[in-house]
């Protein structure tokens, strides 16, 4: 674990390490040590939560990383949350089934290389990482923007007057 995991920039970490460990390792070797750590940990930059002062365990931080990985995976999918029905929808606005969710979880675990639990995945799935849509307002916006009909059958014209009836 490096300071990169917590989102600290490499230069700032090198300065802190110089202040703390220069007497033990020498000032020249510290920047190369820090650079080596940052190069190997680049994919995880800023992915770990800072430890709580209450003494939480490392598993808690690892769980937060998994939920972020699941959220990143879900953002890449074409999913929507229907604000009216409170259901998850595919891009074609058909309902997402339990089978679909389990297939997404399987694909997420394969793609991320992590063993993300169903509970963690469902938490990410029901978060705001899935964009919310309201089909009713979307329809009304579409109708409002469309031009009015211009066909001649829509116009009402008075019938010709019959001279015999007058």
Please characterize this protein's 3D structure:
It contains six helices and three strands; from the N terminus they run H-H-H-E-E-H-H-E-H. By secondary structure, it is mostly helical. The chain has a three-stranded mixed beta sheet with strand order 2-1-3, with no helix packed on it. A hairpin with a 5-residue loop joins strand 1 and strand 2. Helix 1 packs across helix 2. The longest helix has 18 residues. It is elongated. The termini are far apart.
Summed up:
The chain is mostly helical and 166 residues long. Helices cover 48% and strands 4% of the residues.
Distance between the termini: 99 Å
Number of helices: 6
**What is the gyration radius calculated from CA atoms?**
29 Å
How are the strands of the largest sheet arranged?
Answer: 2-1-3
- Into which percentage range does the β-strand content fall? under 5%
Structural class: mainly alpha
| Spans of at least 5 consecutive residues with low confidence | 52-61
Task: Give the beta-strand count.
Answer: 3
Q: Determine the fraction of residues in helical runs and give it as a percent range.
A: 40-55%
Order of helices and strands: HHHEEHHEH
Shape: elongated
Largest sheet: 3 strands, mixed
